[in-house]
Predict the structure.
Amino acid sequence: MNSASWQARITCGRETGSGFLVTERHVLTCAHVVARGGSGEVRVSFARGGESLPAKVVAHGGWDGRDTDPGDVAVLELDRSVPLEPAEFAAPADAYGDPPRRLVAYGFPKRYEEGTLAEYRATADQLIAGEWVQLEAWVAHGQPLAPGFSGAAVTLADTGRVVGMVSSAARDPGIRNGRMLPAHVMARYWPRLGELIPTPEYGRTEKERLRELVLARGPEFDGRPECSPERLYSDAVGPFGPPLPGRRFRSLWDAAWYLLSEVPDTGAVARFAARLADFTEDAPTRGALRAWPSRAYDRRPRPPVNPPGPPAAGTQPWSPILVEIAPSGSGDHQFLVEVSAYNGRHRRVVGSRALPADRVRGYALERIDEAYHELEPGARELIAFVLPRRWLNTDVAHWQRSADDDSPLGSFAPLVVMDLERRRSGGLQHKLLQKWQRLDGRSAAPLHRIGCGALGQDPVRLTIGLRRGADMVGFASPPRAQGTRRLFQASLNAAVPVMLWPRSGCRGEHRGGAHEDCTGAAFLDRLAAHLADLPPSELPSHIHELRETAYADDGPEPHWAYDLALLWEDPRCLPDPVGYLHSPVG
């Protein structure tokens, strides 16, 4: 204990307690030591007869007055630096052992102006109410933890390193136990403390950068459920990682520190930082988060969320970039846009934002480009748009890929659309899985044609009929006219895995039967010929090649597939289809 010059005596009004120096100007103590002193000045001294320095409370754990309330931590800032070496911290696990480790606290009870020592041991490493560790006297006749020990550093007797702080002292001399606030719990309430506590996998510089980046987040975080500490933690550890602790995180830093100090997967901390960058407006902060650290793109294999079906012979699984566009609940023209990337079976959200309709395209395209950073160099890319039903005919395949590239997005990569309502339906997702299990054993599927002459048929009968036998449906006209819309919805309700149609062209006006000049019938003829002998699981690639041909065609008339739309959905490629089941507003 020769280095105990950092042990401090705290006075506030008529209250006396203990504390300890952790930086050249900062002292830790209990919040109740300075709170119960009323409006009295807080003063700190480090040696008997030494100078008493004024201090102010600069951070508070949120303790609100009762002995059982959490957050009994106060950080004092001295009016000037002191020429003393601050306390050093031990690793959190060092306080416990078999046999027990001898722990020492240096406090200032009544009649001990110079201070006195108390020897204790931790009963176990189990936290009481997620906050405290119970202390028991080392010997029956030693100094009890009386008032005046509150805020004292609890140190290892053999090294003098700090493992916690006395937070509860008995007022009855006959009671010889107390409570310690472990150092790693105190770090929840004062982020800077996390840099001082040893953690096996992270250096002080790394932790300092993460703390600064977490605290530099913008006001856009406030009130957004997708930015909650619990959501970011769950995204970081993945579906098979450690569950949430039995308490709510009090802040984003609390979640980050829990990952640093409690979760052994180093990649989880990096994924947390990368996920945090998704919601950060400030460009330098966003870039710094994405760069911290190289482990952010840890590629260790993870168990699948849903068991994958067998890929087609000679192919590899898709690595989708998922673009979900859903009504935000705050108005007819406001949408929640979320872009995710699947690396193997692990999904990471690249960006998520509520936007007016006229900003959806630009934001989605920027995040799609960003999502490519998440894919392995040899990954088999697939851009999948999940759209509200009324948007399914949107020309997403024709969107200009970027501000510097005028080529259509559909020529850049395989691109498909999916129906938002169907993706949220557990029953329809189950039916889709059943259909794909049947399709896995087939090299091709026949095209069920819905031409202009079929627009008057009953949608319910169509749903039942398609559900029993159809796996691929082609429409002669886009789902704009009333008749086509009803049959289009019937096909979606039948859990048809593949649906194709022309975004423009025939308007479905030939209800009496086939006509020689019906462009829709000609479209279906060409489509059926092209799809013959093609496996449904490979259609995104084949349609991508067809689109490239159509976009490059310089004939006098548009290529028959120039406006081809493809709805293709295999739930095994895109696990976690629940999405936002409730409005994020309110």
About this structure: Residues 294-314, 577-586 have pLDDT under 50 and may be disordered. The first helix runs from residue 31 to 35. The chain has 15 helices and 23 strands. Residues 26 and 558 are 73 Å apart (CA to CA).
